Amino acid sequence: MRFRRIPDETIRRLPVYFRALLFFAEQGSRYISSSSLAELVGLNSWQIRKDFSYFGGFGTRGVGYEIAELLKQIRKILKIRTGQKIALVGVGNLGSAMLAYPGFQIYGFEIVAAFDNNPKKIGKKVKNVKVEDVAKLGSLKRRRIRLAIIAVPCEAAQNVADKLVNAGVRGILNFSPCYITVPSTVKVITIDIAMDLARLPYYVPGSVFAEW
Fold this sequence. Notes:
Blueprint: H1 8-26, E1 31-32, H2 34-41, H3 45-53, E2 65-66, H4 67-78, E3 84-89, H5 93-100, E4 109-116, E5 125-126, E6 129-133, H6 139-143, E7 147-150, H7 154-166, E8 171-174, E9 187-190, H8 193-199
Parallel strand pairs: 3-4, 3-7, 4-6, 7-8, 8-9
Antiparallel strand pairs: 1-2, 5-6
């Protein structure tokens, strides 16, 4: 199913709702109101209702949302399914941390392939994933891996992205602190941790900067 003209911010919030709903489901809850969901995720209930309205709305007035059905619908919208294979390029500190991160499993992701250009790392296992030579990125097409994470230095990011695209990858999560270009058929989401951190002092009370 393809949904059009949906704001990116709405799509960005859906995984947040999904994780919260899983929490309520694990507590044995069957229904949830928009206000209860809003309280857990730190949003306004009207925002949640508006986000869901883009997809037709899933709730019943006076009853709320059936959690199991809502989880099903969000899975359908985001195409969440178990066994989604991910390739990781760059097994430095950040890449190794991602291999150890258990949170991907919530959304059905599993890093099944890792690549690096460091001879000292190639052939070794990190969290049960064998590190392969980056020169073998072309094997992703045969292995039907369509999603990848880039965690390499900026100067190598574009070259890696080009190789991933040539190998059939259609979705890239880019942790390199630079802009990469890809064909319009490929989706790139760039996360620059330092840049996001640079925004944080703006929101800190001015007294912190009194000595500046």
